[in-house]
Amino acid sequence: MAAMERPFVEIDGVSMRYGGTEGTLALKDASLNVGRGEFVAVVGPSGCGKSTLMRLVTGLWPCSAGSVIVAGREVDKPLSMAGMAFQNPTLLPWRTILDNVMLPLEVVEPHRRQLRAQRAMYEDKARKLLAMVGLAGFEKKFAYELSGGMQQRASLCRALIHDPQLLMLDEPFGALDIFTREDLWEQLQQVCVTLKPTVILVTHDLKEAVFLADRVLVMSSRPGRILAERRVPFPRPRRLEDTYTPEFQALVHELRDHISAARKGEEIPDAA
Ligand SMILES: Nc1ncnc2c1ncn2[C@@H]1O[C@H](COP(=O)(O)OP(=O)(O)OP(=O)(O)O)[C@@H](O)[C@H]1O
User: pLDDT digits over 124-136, tens only?
Assistant: First the structure.
């Protein structure tokens, strides 16, 4: 039998308290693993610690207890290998869209070293990513000239430009209308099928979680920990029409029941 591959992200017994011993306990004894190339969605009640979990995995905050290991290494500083996109696209207003997308290349090695000599190659790559999300022709525009959805697509390209092995998405489509959001789900799915990064997506949208993820993890109310997980059995590529099937809707409802129970501090016994 082939040896089991070590998970790409290993979170073991992590606790996190903001603001000293009397501060807010955001996470308590949270554990989860994510396989290399796996797409995991994290859902849960508001304020349960989802964004905190993202900050720990990317090394933006240290954990108070437990360990976070990514690609076999303990995370003890910000992870440059991760690509990140958040609810707010945070594009720099004085840079063109192309230059915004290329920003991580100025920071992350080995790209930083190679950028000057290979600028044309990197620009070509940025253009291809922009084209993949429907932004061909907008390279020289500034953020204020783009709609919110277009800015969000550009921020997704910026998260992907340095071929991140790990993609961390914290409600990246939360501020968008449903049509733009669904459009971006399909584009993100396409990007993931092509580039195969390991992805952790935080979302409040259960349909989004089931459409995109290989596995959905449900967190408890604060202090957060993983209460339940569901593997999403639907084959890829998934189509928006699939979201109307009884199987898809049943899974969304099951996750909703878990979150309702979590909000009341209850736990649904695992049927599996
Ligand atoms: N910088 C901070 N300082 C102090 N407390 C914080 C800080 N960031 C988050 N918290 C607290 O930690 C808890 C978890 O916050 P977090 O943002 O991780 O939750 P979340 O699940 O992402 O929330 P939401 O779903 O509403 O976005 C909350 O009670 C929040 O008030």
Answer: 999 998 988 889 9
What fold is seen in the domain 7-22+29-81+165-272?
A: Rossmann fold (3.40.50)
Measuring from atom 12 of ligand 1, which residue has the nearest CA?
26
49 lines ligand 1 (CB under 6 A): yes
Burial class, 264, CB count within 10 angstroms (exposed 0-12 / middle 13-18 / buried 19+): exposed
User: How far is 80 from 90, CA to CA, in rounded Å?
Assistant: 18
| Domain residue limits, the chain | 7-22+29-81+165-272, 87-164
CA dihedral in degrees (211, 187, 38, 168; nearest 10)? -100
Complex ipTM: 0.97
Residue 100 CA, ligand 1 centroid: distance in Å:
28
CB atoms within 10 A of CB 117: 9
Among candidate residues 65, 80, 39, the one with its CA nearest the CA of residue 200: 39
pLDDT, tens digit, for every residue of 195-211?
A: 889 999 999 999 999 99
